[in-house]
Amino acid sequence: MLVESARTTEQLQVLLARRVAGEPLEQVVGWAEFCGLRIQVEPGVFVPRRRTEFLADRAIAAARGPSPTVVELCCGSGAVSAAVLAALPGALLHAADIDAAATRCARRNLPGAAVHLGDLYAALPPRLSGQVDVLVANAPYVPTDAVALMPPEAREHEPRVALDGGPDGLDVHRRIATSAAIWLARDGVLLIEVSAAQVPTATAIFAAAALDVEVVHSHDLDATVLLGRLHRS
Fold first, then answer.
1. Would you tell me the crossing angle of helices 79-87 and 100-109 to the nearest 10 degrees?
2. What is the C-alpha separation between 5 and 219, in angstroms, rounded?
3. Gyration radius (Cα) of the chain, Å
4. How far apart are CA 39 and CA 105, in angstroms?
5. What is the pLDDT of residues 39-91, one digit of tens each?
6. What is the reported pTM?
7. Diameter of the chain by CA atoms?
8. I need a labelling partner for 117 at 20 to 30 A (CA). Which of 106, 107, 137, 187 fits?
């Protein structure tokens, strides 16, 4: 990949030196493969993980009709949103992230979509309240004490805000779930990636937010996703 990305021998030496120094390969070459797409990533931007392709697949499967309203929170470079648009070009898509570098990448990866800089729901246009058919998030879910155990490519070259999910890794999930009912359409669905070990706590978080929960898992990708729908009494 380094050889293919370099136009000259001199450029190859620069790219090689960056990789030897520990920079993630995707940041060095400027893109990551995700759901068969090339997602542009800059230095310092979270690199989309292959396991998150399962989250994207489930979001696509949850969408109904030719023009669903889809919102991705904690969008990073916009990989999940790009996969959704590739499968559902008629989707009305909004993506949001708190990191300026990430949203800069997302705007390049999501031409024509609405990309917002801000903190979760505060970044969204108020008109989306009660209108979101698919609300998807790969929120940070590494427990604070476990960040130091991550590979150096992540802990030294990706933003802490994209990794650190608080004491149990689910701080952002709580914030997303608590306000989901305000934003979801009547038949809308919330999808969030978690680790398998976090399922009991995450399920309780969804239930406390009046969401009926479904847990799905991909053995091939070692990926777990929670789906939450508005509880109907």
1. 20
2. 33
3. 18
4. 9
5. 999 999 999 999 999 999 999 999 988 899 999 999 999 999 999 999 999 99
6. 0.94
7. 66
8. 187
